[in-house]
């Protein structure tokens, strides 16, 4: 029998892999046999994540400290990975941030910072990985983590820079998919809805957000740990070679209304 989602021997680079959804997706890919590169700014965190994944799933891992807004560091990080593993088959562009304030009070620094990390950083990592690893190999799976807020606006939580940046990630995904699709590389995006992470815990636990979930989400709840994993595995699969340039909302139906 064929296992369509077997990633044995593949190398998966996950950015923002120090906490939250990045770690969850890295574990899901490791569960399918992928070697994992955990990349983020906090050295102790990614080293702990890499160690845990290696011990739990029996796959090779690597921790790489990197600020994705620093082009030179991104290029050096990709070189480091290629020295160790010789390939990068899967890139999960997960690193991001979120400025929350009414639009009229958002500062230039907040707006520019958001674009620099969420959109600029996503592009810089994709560019380096494609140029140095995937284009030469004529193979790659790039998964950009956008957001349902990259597809719609919202009335309950002012976050205009986040919407703008994630909307940019959505169309960047389409642009890269169009450009690299003939070269063996697929580029797709996952658009998560509300999931608990260290960044969102306090907001999602508020009575206001809890009530909003019942009104705005057909599933009437937030996403649980692990409910993003299958989308990441599907888009990482060698068998998903004809899936290119799509956005996969994993949002309990939020964007269907």
Secondary structure blueprint with pairings:
Elements: E1 11-15, H1 20-31, E2 35-40, H2 43-57, E3 61-65, H3 71-85, E4 90-93, H4 108-137, E5 140-145, H5 160-180, E6 185-192, H6 201-205, H7 207-216, H8 229-236, E7 247-250
Parallel strand pairs: 1-2, 1-4, 2-3, 4-5, 5-6, 6-7
Helix pairs in contact: 1-2, 1-8, 3-4, 4-5
Describe what this molecule looks like in 3D:
The chain has a 7-stranded parallel β-sheet with strand order 3-2-1-4-5-6-7, with helices on both faces. It is globular. Helix 1 crosses helix 8 and helix 3 runs parallel beside helix 4. It contains 8 helices and 7 strands, in the order E-H-E-H-E-H-E-H-E-H-E-H-H-H-E. It is 45% helix and 15% strand. The protein is α/β, with parallel strands linked by helices and 257 residues long.
Distance between the termini: 39 Å
What about the largest sheet? 7 strands, parallel
Q: Might you state the CATH topology name?
A: Rossmann fold
- Please report the first level of CATH classification, the CATH class: Alpha Beta
Q: Write down the Rg.
A: 17 Å
Global structural class? alpha/beta
Helix content: 40-55%
What share of residues are in beta strands? 5-15%
The spatial strand order of the largest sheet comes to 3-2-1-4-5-6-7
Q: What shape does the CA trace take?
A: globular
The count of DSSP E runs of length 2 or more, i.e. the number of strands, is 7
CATH superfamily: NAD(P)-binding Rossmann-like Domain
């Amino acid at each position: 029998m064929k296992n369509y989602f077997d990633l044995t021997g593949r190398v998966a680079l996950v950015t923002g892999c120090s906490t939250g959804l990045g770690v969850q997706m890295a574990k899901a890919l490791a569960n399918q046999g992928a070697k994992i590169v955990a990349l983020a700014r906090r050295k102790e965190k990614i080293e702990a994540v890499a160690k845990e994944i290696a011990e739990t799933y029996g796959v090779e891992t690597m921790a790489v400290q990197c600020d994705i807004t620093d082009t030179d560091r991104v290029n050096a990080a990709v070189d480091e990975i290629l020295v160790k593993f010789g390939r990068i088959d899967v890139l999960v562009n997960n690193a991001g941030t979120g400025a929350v304030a009414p639009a009229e009070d958002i500062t230039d620094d907040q707006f520019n910072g958001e674009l620099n990390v969420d959109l600029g950083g996503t592009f810089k990592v994709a560019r380096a990985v494609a140029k140095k690893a995937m284009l030469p190999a004529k193979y790659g799976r790039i998964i950009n983590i956008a957001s349902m807020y990259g597809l719609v606006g919202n009335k309950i939580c002012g976050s205009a820079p986040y919407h703008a940046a994630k909307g940019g990630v959505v169309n960047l995904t389409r642009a890269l998919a169009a450009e690299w699709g003939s070269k063996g590389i697929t580029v797709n995006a996952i658009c998560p809805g509300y999931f608990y992470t260290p960044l969102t815990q306090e907001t999602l636990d508020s009575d206001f957000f809890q009530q909003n979930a019942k009104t705005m989400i057909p599933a009437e709840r937030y996403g649980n740990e692990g409910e993003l994993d299958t989308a990441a595995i599907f888009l990482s699969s060698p068998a998903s070679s004809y899936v290119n340039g799509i956005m996969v909302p994993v949002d309990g139906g939020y964007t269907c209304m």
